[in-house]
Amino acid sequence: MKITKSAQSGTMQSSDLMIFLEPADELIIEIESTVKQQFEHLIRAKVEEVLTQHQVSCGEIRINDRGALDYAIVARLEAGLKRACEKE
Amino acid sequence: MVRNSLGRELPESFNGRQVVPYQDPYSLQPDCNQATRPLRRINPDQEKVLPNLREAIIAAGLKDGMCIATHHHLRNGDALLGAVVRELDALGLRDITIASSSIHPVHAELIPYIEKGVISGFECGVNGPIGEMVSRGELNCPIIVRTHGGRARAVMSGQVQIDAAFIAAPSCDSYGNMTGAFGPSACGSLGYAHTDARYAKKVIAVTDNLVPYPARSFAIQQTLVDYVVPVESLGDPSKIVSTTTRITRDPVGLQIAKYAAQVIETSGLLQDGFSFQTGSGGISLAVADQVRQKMQAGNIKGSFGCGGITGYFVDMLEEGLFQTLFDVQCFDLKAVESIGKNAGHQEISADMYANPFNAGAVVNQLDCVILGATEVDVNFNVNVNTESNGLLLHNTGGHSDTAAGAKLSIITAPSIRGRLPIVRDEVTTVTTPGATIDVIITERGIAVNEQHADLKQELQKRKLPVKDIRELQQEIYSVTGKPRPLEFTDDVVALIEYRDGSIIDAVRKIKT
Fold first, then answer.
1. pLDDT, tens digit, for every residue of B69-95?
2. Distance (Å, rounded) from C-alpha B195 to C-alpha B275?
3. Residue A2 within any structural domain of the chain
4. By residue range, what is the domain housing residue A73?
5. Hey, of B419, B479, B512, which one would you mutate to test binding to chain A, going by the most A CBs within 10 A of its CB?
6. Is residue B328 part of a domain?
7. Which of B100, B169, B319, B352 is least crowded, fewest Cβ atoms below 10 Å from its Cβ?
8. Phi/psi of residue B232, each to 5°?
9. Are B232 and B353 part of one and the same domain?
10. Among residues 27-66 of chain A, which lie with CB inside 8 Å of chain B?
11. What's the confidence (pLDDT) of residue B33?
12. B420·A69 Cβ contact <8 A
């Protein structure tokens, strides 16, 4: 998949996350989280896993996490990717 | 550095005072007499009413380096502490210690006066922004967090000497007889202020409702009060008490409450004479509701409800499920109304409520208490002071006091909050020692402290989901992942004092 346009997914509710996706020439992953100190490494690992799975190698992905569990991260990221990779 | 019996690293002294490391909940003995204060004489021709706070500060003889106190019954609606500090500043006073019963987010208004040197320390815990800034190293102002009972002990033993207590009095006469039950700023019980009235060198009643002498009822009496200051307003009544406190609707919370009620029933304590305390949180109230139904169904007559009192406990009193409510603090409007009219609803001081160094506090008579937690650890230690980011944001309240006193102390908490698992290898800060916690209840299972093998067996017999605490922890970690520990600097910014005055933990500045 290739990120071709801006898109977002998710909410700012507690235990959810919001993801903003933009086209870019390289892969940039920015993570803000209420539990950044404890879980940034696991959030990043999960995001990278989903991106690899969908063969996304570039794009700017900004995450604002409010303590989401892994399954929510996967679901929100996949929804965001589908929106950002849609053909015009 | 020294280590206490829980392995927590403590400084040898803090803010000029020697640190006594915590050993265990019950063995430390008092080694001094009660504190004293000078006698005073008020003659028939003397008036106590002064025109304003400034005159009262001058009359009380406050000087640089002295200590003042207020109570926190007005909670986040309190305007008095801010007003007193502004007057202290206007009079050029500096290096004042605050020994109030608690500090709330509204008191963020004190921050400029801490920066300016008017306030140089807190002999009390803090809720909100001041604790946050101190934790970040943005404010230099040592804090000693105390329990409700521990504060009464500290004041009565002279460890904390209050030079002037400013007591917000929702109803007060010209000679200082006061109550919190009536008036535009009614807050109900004045439980935390009783100790201040008895031990502070000068006692100033501040009221927005001056009534003709004698007040028709009073909780603190004229013989303890030096001055009376009428003011326009004590604060914002809408923030003083919650209009209502409600049962949780969250299915997770309701499941936890159901387990808690089953644990209480299984313990065998739920019989005639049952005594009970909960907080005002949604899960606590749901437990109270379940217990109430079980008491009604079994025609059980309890002895007393205790603590911060909510409308739920008032209902139980009025239904005859309890004979007495011991009230150190009213949590909602219904409780405030009740304390003014129900004979069985009795105001008690923080000393009577929870002080470990007197001839027996009410908590010692408690059968069961329901408490919350930010984190617990595999040794059943509980943290309610610091949040997941390491910031000191919450006061202890009666947590450690009731846990130590009650026969059955139960922690109720969801297993996961915003990805954070409730059970850790080690809590960030120990508020209450695991030796005083009997059962931890989450929606995923119930962990019973080893000292209660019988209860554990009985719960298993009743097919309740009893789990070893490490097993529970692993189950939660399998959903959340294992959190990385927080990073702190070596700078100690606050001490967590156990109820007996020993130090159970230190709070350090976070790494930014």
1. 999 999 999 999 999 999 999 999 999
2. 25
3. no
4. 7-84
5. B419
6. yes
7. B319
8. -60, -45
9. no
10. 34-35, 37-39, 41-42, 66
11. 96
12. no
